[in-house]
Amino acid sequence: MSRLKWEADDLIRELWPLRALVRQLRGEVEKLQAKVQELEGRGAKNSHNSSKPPSSDGLAKLPAKPRSLRKPGQHPNGGQPGHTGHTLQKVEKPDRVVVHLPAAHCHACQGPLGEATMAESRQVFDLPPLRFEVTEHQVWAATCACGEVCRGEFPEGVSSPVQYGPAALAAAVHLTQHHMMPVQRTSELMDDFFGLPMAEATVLAASQEAGVRLTPTVSTIGQALQVADVAHADETGLRVAGSLHWMHVLATTLLTWVACHAKRGKQAFDALGILPGFLGTLIHDGWKPYRDLLCKHGLCNAHHLRELTYLFEDLGQAWAGRMIDLLRTACHEVGQTGAPLPESRRAFFLSRYADILSEGEALNPRAPPSGKRGRPRQSKATNLLLRLRTYTDDVWRFATDPGVPFTNNLAEQAVRMSKVKQKVSGGFRTKKGADAYCIIHSYLATMHKQGANLFHALILTFQGQPPQPRLA
Fold it and tell me: Among the residues of 122-199, which ranges form H helices?
């Protein structure tokens, strides 16, 4: 009996290193499985389930359309009740009338016809022949009996023997700064549309002049945004003089302020001088430099929905699907009433929210300390859960504070056209050009929100009287 025990002990001692090896291999396999899952998930990311732009999707068809925040049947296709249409309508006094008379004799019996009357009219809306107009300013002089020569004076702004007028300069700036046309194509369009040759250097000079004239107005817009109750912030990379710069945005439903800086975070905030003085509620994507600002915060739930969609559809985590439904339902209820949720509904949603987070945390435990410097690397799911748990009040700010929206769409819309500008034109050759673009874009985006005619606003700008936006 004792002999068998000795043999068993010997066998255990021989197998003990194998057990340690098995545990080690099992740990390696788990790490490799996690790495494979991460790489597969990285390849599955697109604009539908992450913050990647739609341009990065390529030509591949997405697996599914993004789920709308609207309830089925809430807004059917077509014009909504109360929406005023924009169908082309006849005018009472046309600029030109062309009369089409019938033949002199009846086509049936060949008899002579009497006096004709109008039976039907149709109107064609078209552009007149586009041609530039040249105005010559002549200064005359007269000699007094005392011998003094008295001259007339040129109007303000007429300073060269030959120059472009405010409308021509406004058209060039409108095309290149608002419609994001490259400078060369803007020059070509001015010639094609109006027969008015304009050098590329002239287009650039017009943009610089507009930037100088609009600087005081844009400074006023920035100051007005500092005292707004709710504002939206975002930033995006911008290629300037061959290096990466950052375009910073602060926006409300009425105002847009844009500026460019070589840095992305606190150093840029301090240099630009707008965000550090903001004390309202700032809607953003959760980036840490925003979090350090001395103001209330609201997180963009569109970002959360995309991250949750990735976890639900690509990683198969059911809790993420339930969180999507919960946030969408709360957003729908706030949208129906246009006011924060009642206390009872708020308590219900927060209780359900906490339960779903606990479920997700059980499935995605935090990685233990690795013994290396810094925090251990966590999975995408764990990082999202940590953010949702730590900043619960900011996630639900849309349901508790009046005027706080569910998403940060206003800021993202403000940066979108700048990405189009960079994609079409390839960036800016100088910091001076980027600054001029930001000033002009701030003004035009603001005036566009307020329903102004941007071309007429630019004409008045070159005449020294830029229309001022409403600030509240």
Answer: 166-173, 183-194
